[in-house]
Amino acid sequence: MTAGFKHDVNVEELNFWKSVFRGILNDIDIRIYFLLRDNGRMSDTEIARKLGVSATTIRRRRIALQEKGYLQILGILILQELHMAYMDVLVKFNQNVSSDEIERFISDAKRNYRIFEIAEYAGRYDVLLRFFERDMHALTRSIHEFMSRHPYVDDYEILPITRSPKAFAKKLK
What we know:
- Helix content is about 40%, strand content about 15%.
- With about 170 residues, the chain is an alpha+beta fold.
- Helix 3 (about 45-50) crosses helix 4 (about 55-65).
């Protein structure tokens, strides 16, 4: 426990976050995030009680974090707990692809409800897509169908995810 706060935290983790977000997030902001990370439904009053500060302070800080776009509270389905198949697809565009074609590809991926994450890369691959489906067979078919619609994709690699021990791996309550 750190002085002034009632909520136990890993001091090493807290110090890491403080050093990374120095000047952007303060101690209270980081602790609000820690509590909401564990329970996104926690009320401002409960957070205030755990941190030993007023509910008004917590509400003001949480709203500021949300308005700045730093914090978003959302629901996430834990795919491995639901026994869904999910795969990473690393995509390499051909050298002659235009920026408009890349934007169309990204827009198409954003509209695809089977894709739950998109990341742009610098390096061997250009884009990572994270797909999910009810089973591996249906998922593989969906991936190949999506990729076949984009002739400027030079190559792609499908990596089945067998387990996520950290990201979105909380047990459903």
